[in-house]
Amino acid sequence: MTNDTAGLTHSEGDQEHATHERHCSSCRCGQNDPELRRCPLCGGELIVGQSSSSSEQGAQISLSLVFARIICEQCGQAVALRHDRRCVVCGEAHRGEAATARDPAVQARRAAFKRRLLQLAQRAVATGLGDPKFARKGATLSLTEHLGLIRQSIARHQDLSDALRKDLAAVHWDAREPECIPFFHRVVGELDQQIDLVADLLGRVPPVDLRAPHRILARALAEAARGYLSMTMALVATDPEAALARRDEGQALITEAAAILERFSPLLQRIAKAPPDSAWMAHDVLDFATVAWEGVGNRPTSISAAADVVRSALSMIPGIPLLHDAYALQLLPATVFGLRVADPTLLAKRAVLIRSLLDEADGTVAGWIGDPSELTERISVGVRAVIELAERVGFASLGAQSRRMMLQLLINVYGSLVEGPVRDLGGALVIAIRARRGDQRNASYERMAARGIQAGDVVQELGRIGGPWDHAVDLLIRNAGAHSGATITDTGVRLTQQSIKAGVLVDEKTVELTDAEVVEEFACLQETVLALQLGIFPWLMTHADPKVAAAVASVQPTEREREAIIRLLAGLGGLLDVEFQQHGSALRLNGRLVEAAKIQELPKVPSLVAAIFGAWKSIDEVTVALESREPVTFFRHELPNGNPADDLPAVGLITRKWLGELPSNAARLADLVYLVKPQLNVIVGALSESLPPNDAGLNAAETRLRVLAERIDRAELPPPTTGLVNETHRLIRQTARALARFREAVSGPDKALRVSRARAVGALALQVQNADQRAVMKWKELTSKASAQVPNASATRVDGGSAA
What we know:
Helix content is 57%, strand content 10%. It is an alpha+beta fold. The strands form 5 sheets. Strands 1, 5, 6 and 7 form a 4-stranded mixed beta sheet that branches. Strands 13-14-15-16 form a 4-stranded mixed beta sheet. A 3-stranded antiparallel beta sheet has the order 3-2-4, with no helix packed on it. A hairpin with a 6-residue loop joins strand 5 (64-71) and strand 6. The model is unreliable at 1-20, 51-58, 786-797 and 800-804 (pLDDT under 50).
């Protein structure tokens, strides 16, 4: 029996004991014995070269352990002793001395290190490294002081990590060698300090604006500490297989923690650059334009791209990746408002649990949703209440509110959130659990059952779910607020809950919270409501039951919700400070286009007009009035017929109307891009539609051209800057007349007349082709000039078919 030194994680560094000429292709361990043909630890092939890329090596930890090595009598390979006493190469059981021998290197390490490492592991569990529990009471630092604490914690963590890497790689871990012991004491001391660092963060109540970053950081440092502890526990593994498992577990945790910390600095920067709280409000309503603009990173963004932002940010929530763009976009505010307050890990865990319970109910009890319309209405009411209560708090923050008034407001809104959104959203979960459990009463989602659910029923079920749903709602705050049991003191709030039976006080409970603790409890409830939304909303929007899908589709937005939708869409294009003025069937939209959107994204405004007409069926005209631009009025009859992609001339007319007067070259480009090219394409399409010539096809082509000609006649456009505009309009009318004459000839007996009029159509086709070629040449000429600047011109071509 001989000793074998194995680097459990191979690294091509200059550290002593950490460099090996060969490594295992399977477990990546390094081996420096030239006589070995297979890895003695796992039986994998030994190959020459680096075991990983340089970037991967930088993240890996070198750890050299000593294991006893024997020669297998069956295959003749040198292998390490495993716990099951089988050869890692051939799989045969060892015989003789190898069948009962114990690895002296393993025994020495376990005797020297196991007790202290177990104590450390027990402390890690007690501290909550695996499932961090955050303090909800205690002193709070100022925003500046807590930012300093965060930076100090990150720096301290980096110092401890560097020290652990160095000390773990410093020696061959053979406890029979005296040099190991000092390094072991240094390692466990550094691990103790890592746990101290996490415990300090878990025990603090951060300012609400740093609540989410604080929790993200604490979880990341806890994960890193667990990783280094797992890596160190490899020292007392019973055999190489267990050591490799500990190593891989530790390395995975450390790598994940490093990835979180790498994203942490940009998160803090984004929070620091976020608008002040007052910017989220437009008088007494949430300014969803500002919310959307912030959500897409202050860059003009399409609806589909914004929906992708939501899917990416909330990808850990079941059902989110499957949401249609329109539904995903409704969750964009959650990615903004939750940035500072909500713990993303807790949100994900809670939403996953909710979704699993709802899916189990769907899978085991068919038809438990007895009234889909009631379900969609209650959830809509719950979401609406969340927004309205947020607006209530936001509006109060705009004025000079006293501390006492704000605390009282938070207590009141806390109760309203519990009795409103928690009950309405959680009601679906309660009935789903009843159905899944097989309850005989109120286990079907019907109107009377749903409206009979109380907030206490929801809180009770959340408590039964447990785990991440523990302490989701504090009913004492709700009860005290509802029964005048909340007293604002000089240092905080005194909350008293009384139990009265038969007119007699039988129980009384009082708690006192500081101002910061009240804010923390309010944030915890906001987190609960958001988790309910994220768990239930995607489930409802993607439900497979056709009746549920029909109920979802039938929901009509309120007037306030229509305005919120338009603000949200406006914000995607950088249109802020949106206000509405309605007079009968006319609507005026006032706003301000931010600098980043003024040049690049002006044509996005007409798409907002289409959304307004779609949201308000009673509106026949919309005037868009932006700062530094003349107001432009659009009419419903100007909208595209059906899908805008199928009616590009209408899109072009609206866009050109919006662009208005432009510098000469820009105006020519705009005329070519938005008028000439899409209209020529329609003529080409009509001519193709008329072949082979028959009455129906010719009539359809003629009608299509006449409708376009009438639309152009009604359009209010700036004066044309190129003769191609009028020429194209003339070709549309001439082609329509030529197709009408050709249709008459096709249905008549005169063959010569048919040939003559077919030639006339062919001649017009050549004119159209010639006009198209000239339009392309002119476009290329204009775009080659450095001074030519047309919104979206760089992304819009007229030489390849579509103009939009």
